[in-house]
Amino acid sequence: MSNRTLQLGMVGGGQGAFIGAVHRTAALLDGVFALTAGALSSTPDRARASGAAIGLADDRNYPDWRTMLDAERRRDPGQRIDAVAIVTPNDTHFEIARAFAQAGFHVLCDKPLVHTSAQATELIRVVRNTGVIFAVSYNYSGYPLVRQARELIAAGAIGRIRRVCVEYHQGWLATRLEASGQKQAAWRTDPARSGAAGALGDIGSHAEQLVACVTGLELESLCVDQSTFVPGRQVDDDAAMLLRFVGGARGTLTASQVCVGAENDLRLRVWGETGGIEWRQEQPNELRVAKLGEPECLLRRGNDYLGPAARSATRLPPGHPEAFFEAFANIYRGFGAAIHAGASGLEAAAQHDFPGVLDGARGVHFIEKALESARSDARWTAARFIPPA
Ligand SMILES: NC(=O)c1ccc[n+]([C@@H]2O[C@H](COP(=O)([O-])OP(=O)(O)OC[C@H]3O[C@@H](n4cnc5c(N)ncnc54)[C@H](O)[C@@H]3O)[C@@H](O)[C@H]2O)c1
Question: What percent of the chain has pLDDT over 90?
């Protein structure tokens, strides 16, 4: 076991990209990682210009990910990257993740993990065979008060869960933004790149993971009403579903990108027999907790009355807001801790509290089952995820 700074390579996240810069900030926040290599864009010139702009050393600023993989592999152990962050559009995740994992590099890949369950199963197989650590950046599970909610529910603070309501509403695709060439909209609405689902995959997958992480409930079946409101759009931009969980709890999930005025409005409410919790991504430092017969209570990040999971995911005192970057950094922190601990393969995610390849695979399964239900005119569809043996 060692605590040396780990070397991170990045694929994607070039100039004008959205999430790559967030990953870089998060990875470096605690000094666990240093960014030492990258193939940051889809064309060699743009990749090299993007790497130069963030100060990558010339000999590790690669024109494409295959060159990076070959060159890093040839470096002496200790001189090569330990891990790679994959922050490219969805259609590229599988090939890049498989190649780096097969070569023995640890992988942190953004969501949704891949396009198909067959691809996810293959990644699980590679993780099993190589023992590499594999994280999926479902960043919302990194928030301290999300972890507090999870801890409260696991301790029975709201009793047996009856109802889950998760909503993820955005408005940025309320018009046909993709026709303007805006690049984040363009690939997200192209099924060849985004995957068969639109809003359902892009943000519905976050909602699914948030529910699974906080409640521990296992989805049994779902019934989905999916829409494409914007004329000419090739994927859904709005989805609503009923959920049935193993054990009897019921839920609803909405994921929409055409809600004018909504920014990144992810909310989770969970009610049990004796209480309820409510968390909102846009007010992430607060958690509302209700208990039968008592006034509602507002928990705030950074306070000593919170449990160990929330306290250890916090860097600043109360009243000094933490949010998106820090939650993302908590995923990197768990990923890095697993690498430092010499943890292996599939068990590492649960041991070090970050979403792993099994969570990514469950997310892909969820998208497939939701599409299956939507295409059969909102028929109830079995959706239980059985991890591949
Ligand atoms: N976890 C989150 O909250 C979150 C938020 C946004 C996006 N995402 C996910 O992150 C990924 C990227 O999304 P984005 O919005 O940043 O996209 P983006 O279009 O803004 O950026 C993608 C970047 O990848 C580069 N790229 C494309 N193909 C490449 C290749 N073959 N090799 C190297 N670079 C390549 C592009 O040039 C660009 O720099 C997607 O999977 C998306 O779903 C996750």
Answer: 98
Q: Which of 23, 40, 87, 213 to mutate to test the pocket of ligand 1 (most atoms within 8 A of CB)?
A: 87
User: pTM for the full model?
Assistant: 0.98
Q: State the distance from the centre of ligand 1 to the C-alpha of 41, rounded, in angstroms.
A: 9
For the chain, give the mean pLDDT. Answer: 97
Rounded to 5, what percent of the chain is helix, strand, coil?
40, 20, 40
CA of residue 88 to ligand 1 center, whole Å = 3
Nearest-angstrom CA–CA distance, 361 and 167: 21
Using CA atoms, how far apart are residues 45 and 327, in angstroms rounded to an integer? 33
Domain contains 120:
yes
Q: Which amino acid, residue 172?
A: W
For residue 80, the domain's CATH number is 3.40.50.720
- Same domain? For 282 and 243 the reply is yes
Q: Would you mind telling me the total number of residues written for the chain in this entry?
A: 389
Provide the domain count of the chain: 2
Q: Whose alpha carbon is nearest atom 31 of ligand 1? A: 42
What is the 183 CA–ligand 1 centroid distance (Å)?
A: 10
Q: How far is CA 124 from CA 98, 254, 355, 360, in A?
A: 10, 29, 13, 10
Coil, helix or strand for 82? Answer: coil
